[in-house]
Design a protein that fits this description.
9 strands, 6-stranded parallel beta sheet, Pantoate--beta-alanine Ligase, Chain: A,domain 2, Rossmann fold, binds pantoate, alpha/beta, 3-stranded antiparallel beta sheet, 11 helices
């Protein structure tokens, strides 16, 4: 694996080497602090593509809280080990200034419900930043396929919409959510949880699992979500932001018992914001 620290280094590498790899480049954009979830994206990309570019950029425009940006975990030494072991060809580590061509700024985007509900509502401006950076990274890397984890279910819908409009030739590959042995969805932010916080956070996936089982048994989606909501509100140390059934293509909320594809959730534990979802 080689490490390229700027778009100039990346372009030069492509000019010298691209003929060797033809039309089969996979791209895994990340913000670093790589864990097994990222490794699974890189491994999938390396099974499906001849060359895999992994980018690491803590993108300032997608953080709506300064404290979250400042405390976002950074560990480049470990990232190099994880990316290489998982099969990355290039680790691309540009600065925000390089990618944005100056002071980072994100144009507002409006994709209707998929940018205005749930994560879009709770984290104002978040998807503007995601769209902006992914668009710029796609322009820099020019991949054939780009891999995103489905833990960020709404992000996948937003990126698919952006890519269909601005980069229609890039195939967006949505990859399975990876959990730890106790069910907690893997996230770079989990590192900020204490052991006690991890135990509290496990209630999130446990309740999602119960809702999915109830729905499989034929119980009402809205009622099942309501029961989970009440249970989670009683968990000490857990601050529930939302839990809802949703359609992953439209992010619309059905008023009937059909039209749902997933249950999505956001909650805070020890000040750390966690999201998760389960397919119905
Ligand atoms: O999912 C993430 O880590 C980020 O939102 C992404 C896609 C790398 C854009 O900064």
């Amino acid at each position: 694996m080689i490490i390229l620290k700027s778009t100039i280094e990346l372009n030069n590498w492509f000019i010298e080497n691209i003929n060797e790899f033809g039309e089969n480049m996979g791209f895994v954009p990340t913000m670093g602090a790589l864990h097994k979830g990222h490794a699974s994206l890189i491994e999938k990309a390396s099974r499906e593509c001849q060359i895999v570019v992994v980018s690491i950029l803590v993108n300032p425009t997608q953080f709506n809280e300064k404290a979250d940006l400042e405390s976002y975990p950074r560990d480049l030494d470990n990232d190099v080990i994880v990316a290489e072991k998982a099969g990355a060809t290039i680790l691309f580590t540009p600065t925000p200034k390089d990618i944005y061509g100056g002071t980072p700024y994100a144009e507002p985007v409006d994709y209707g419900l998929i940018t205005s509900t749930f994560e879009g509502l709770s984290r104002q401006g978040h998807f503007d930043g995601v769209v902006s950076v992914v668009d710029k990274l796609f322009l820099a890397v020019k991949p054939n396929r780009a891999y995103f984890g489905s833990k960020d279910l709404q992000q996948v819908a937003v990126v698919e919409k952006m890519s269909s409009e601005r980069h229609p030739k890039i195939k967006i590959v949505s990859c399975d959510l990876i959990r730890d042995e106790n069910g907690l969805a893997l996230s770079s932010r989990n590192i900020r949880l204490s052991d006690a916080g991890i135990l509290v956070a496990q209630n999130i996936s446990q309740e999602l699992q119960i809702v999915a089982e109830r729905v499989k048994e034929g119980r009402d989606v809205i009622d099942s979500v309501e029961i989970a909501k009440q249970n989670l509100k009683n968990v000490e140390g857990l601050e529930l932001e939302y839990i809802s059934g949703v359609n992953d293509q439209t992010f619309s909320i059905s008023t009937e018992n059909r039209g749902w594809s997933h249950i999505i959730i956001a909650a805070r534990v020890e000040g750390v914001r966690l999201i998760d979802n389960i397919e119905l």
